[in-house]
Write a structure and sequence with these properties.
Elements (H helix, E strand, L loop, with lengths): L10 H13 L3 H25 L1 H6 L1 H4 L1 H20 L7 E2 L11 E2 L1 H8 L3 H27 L5 H31 L3 H6 L29 H5 L1
Antiparallel strand pairs: 1-2
Length: 225
């Protein structure tokens, strides 16, 4: 979350964070681990959901809340990965303090501006993060029940874990709201910033900016690229 919040400080700060993150030698290992962990979690969750389908049918919100929010979360995760991992944007960035002939990198900040200029996209991301919060809140309570701790320890551990969820999700929600706001005159003036847009940021290569459509699933071509 801390890295994402660098977007509040402008294009150079956020793109520098993205560049350093992508340059880490072990980042692909982390991505592979996360992908495997998510797939295993989805398979196990699907198995338990099928076993409880009769109970879920009787009380969907109480018994099936994890399954419901997990489904929303799956769609949200695929869309997010499509937008920021496999998007075919041609927009490039070079740090404002660097040499004119220095290497360029993908302009993630401009990509966010192009995505979050649409209120529907902002609402989708905020609702997706809300689903994450509910999923973690419910899931953590069930996880604590499986820990080898005393009953007296369960309540404070549950409360501490759940209390940490909401600042985290609030921080992530602030990003799409902020990126939408800086493209509106009233908000930009209130925080002392100029109105920004994807088209107003300088493309380091001089290539035209390609705005990506709103789609839920990445194409095979983008996955291969």
């Amino acid at each position: 979350m801390g890295g994402n919040l660098t977007a509040l400080f402008g294009r150079d700060a956020y793109n520098s964070y993205g560049h350093h993150l992508n340059s880490m030698p072990f980042i692909r290992i982390i991505e592979a681990y996360l992908l495997i962990a998510v797939l295993v979690h989805m398979l196990s969750a699907g198995h338990f959901t099928l076993n409880k389908r009769k109970a879920i049918a009787k009380s969907a919100l109480q018994v099936g809340l994890l399954a419901l929010t997990g489904t929303v979360l799956s769609v949200f995760a695929v869309t997010h990965v499509k937008h920021f991992r496999f998007a075919a944007s041609t927009r490039r960035w070079r740090h404002s303090a660097s040499r004119p002939d220095s290497p360029t990198d993908r302009d993630l900040y401009a990509d966010m501006l192009s995505i979050f200029v649409d209120p529907k996209q902002v609402a989708f991301y905020v609702l997706g993060i809300a689903a994450v919060a509910i999923h973690l809140h419910k899931g953590w309570a069930k996880t604590v029940l499986k820990m080898e701790i005393t009953k007296e320890q369960r309540e404070p551990i549950t409360r501490i874990g759940q209390a940490l969820i909401y600042p985290l999700c609030f921080g992530f929600s602030a990003i799409p709201l902020f990126m939408y706001g800086v493209q509106q005159e009233g908000f930009a003036a209130a925080i002392g910033r100029q109105v920004e847009s994807a088209g107003s940021t300088l493309n380091a290569t001089g290539e035209p900016f390609v705005k990506q459509p709103f789609v839920f699933f990445p194409s095979w071509d983008s996955l291969r690229g």
